[in-house]
Amino acid sequence: MFLLYVDESGSPGDPNQQQFVLAGVSVFERETHWIEEQLNEIAARFNPADPYDIELHGSPMRSGRGEWKGLPMEKRFQAIKDALKIVADRHPNVRLFASVIHRNAPITEDPVTSAFEQLASRFDKYLMRHHLRGNSQRGIAIFDKSSTEKSIQNLARVFKHDGHSWGQLRNFSEVPLFLDSQASRLIQLADLVAFAIFRKFEANDSQFYDIIAHCFDHHQGQNHGLHVNGPQE
């Protein structure tokens, strides 16, 4: 089974932000333990006695807020980069999916709905490619706990049974699950990926994004993993 760990960056309701990002990290089920071990090693730099007490979370790591307050900027930034490098080093076995939606994008749905439709349909096609190559696997999306839990699960049911803009979801084993990010290193990794993409498109800061820029799902020279919906002209 392929697990798609999903998190968001940016807030559609914040007038000071132009972009909303929903990003997913696709990992085969047997890979998760080893990725978690690598992320624990990064967290242990800041609390060797209890690395699980450290949550790898992009925005506070960059700004030095909360538990990251007082820690040197270069160490915080390096931790973000090293976590993203795990994705880069494991590509193409680990693949990224993301939807970036500008606040003035020409969409009829709300940004969360539009972004999830993009993410779910693209991940589903990725699973279909595996099936056509003789490696039939189901997938499941795992989100950080949020207020959108019920709406996302309802959307997944609609996309599976009634269809989405480009067909129907055929390869998901269950509606999306929701976990507390503090309990899941892979959700934390998805947060760092979403944050890196957000910084690229919101602030033209590509220092984190450049590490993972080649890791989006692609096939026959075409990038399927990154969807960008810019402002209406």
The CATH architecture can be named as 2-Layer Sandwich
Structural class comes to alpha/beta
Q: Tell me, rounded to a whole number, the average pLDDT.
A: 93
Low-confidence stretches: none
Q: How many strands in all? A: 8
The DSSP helix count reads 7
Order of helices and strands: EEHHHEHEHEHHEEE
Please describe the topology of this protein.
Blueprint: E1 2-9, E2 19-28, H1 32-43, H2 58-63, H3 73-90, E3 95-102, H4 111-132, E4 139-144, H5 149-161, E5 177-179, H6 185-203, H7 209-212, E6 218-219, E7 222-223, E8 226-229
Parallel strand pairs: 1-4, 3-8, 4-5
Antiparallel strand pairs: 1-2, 2-3, 6-7
Helix pairs in contact: 1-3, 4-5
Short summary:
The protein is an alpha/beta fold and 233 residues long. It has helices at residues 32-43, 58-63, 73-90, 111-132, 149-161, 185-203, 209-212; strands at 2-9, 19-28, 95-102, 139-144, 177-179, 218-219, 222-223, 226-229.
Structure description:
The protein is α/β, with parallel strands linked by helices and 233 residues long. It has one domain: Nucleotidyltransferase, domain 5 (2-Layer Sandwich). The chain contains seven helices and eight strands. The strands form two sheets. A six-stranded mixed β-sheet has the order 5-4-1-2-3-8, sandwiched between helices. A hairpin with a 2-residue loop joins strand 6 and strand 7. Helix 1 packs antiparallel against helix 3 and helix 4 packs across helix 5. The chain is globular and about 50 Å long. The mean pLDDT is 93.
